[in-house]
Design brief:
Strand order of the largest sheet: 3-2-1-4-5-7-6
Low-confidence stretches: none
Order of helices and strands: HEHEHEHEHHEHEE
Mean pLDDT: 92
Number of strands: 7
Strand content: 15-25%
């Protein structure tokens, strides 16, 4: 996925749900870091601590935030994007409290029970023109009626370079009964 991102030394990169920093580690180990800047975000304080300990670098900003509601990201989205590259493995099917679902519905509209689709919508808006996004997500957005607004957004606001479909069991410990996985570039 990092190779598909085509990182260059001038990029401003976002990892919106950085978790253990797997993508961050690969980007930093394979790229000259002269003018590169990376924002690594996560909502989990344990993940933030691990990321801070592992990636205490001047060109890496690590922030504990809810990517879906972050006010600075709202400004970037309203300014026609900020990031030249975005990479992620967003949470799938994460339970949202009813109050949060209402807030998500107000902000993103459509179906809000599937969190990966919200991350995809959010990150498309955060991407500069001619930017690049690479996500690994369930393939349910390709066919389910509840995701028709997301498909429309992808088809009107982006240029799909590649959809790579694979069985979820391809990854150890993962086996969705309801879908396969998709890497969308």
């Amino acid at each position: 996925m990092v190779k598909k991102l085509h990182v260059s030394k001038e990029d401003v990169i976002l990892e919106p749900c950085a978790g253990d920093g797997i993508f961050l580690q690969k980007i930093l180990s394979t790229t000259k870091q002269e003018n590169l800047h990376i924002d690594a975000l996560d909502i989990n304080p344990v993940a933030i601590k691990k990321l801070t300990d592992a990636f205490n670098l001047p060109h890496v900003t690590i922030q504990k935030t809810d990517t879906l509601f972050d006010a600075t990201l709202d400004l970037f989205a309203n300014a026609n994007g900020h990031y030249t590259k975005i990479i992620g493995n967003p949470p799938y099917g994460a339970w949202q409290e009813h109050q949060k679902r209402h807030a998500l519905k107000r902000q993103y509209g459509g179906y809000v029970k599937e969190t990966y689709t919200l991350f995809l919508k959010r990150c498309i808006d955060l991407l500069k023109d001619d930017g690049r996004l690479v996500f690994i997500v369930p393939d349910t957005f390709l066919a389910l009626h509840v995701h028709k607004d997301l498909r429309k957004k992808i088809l009107t606001d982006t240029k799909i370079e590649e959809l790579l479909l694979m069985p979820s069991k391809f990854f150890p410990g993962v086996n969705f009964g309801y879908s396969n996985l998709c890497i969308i570039t």
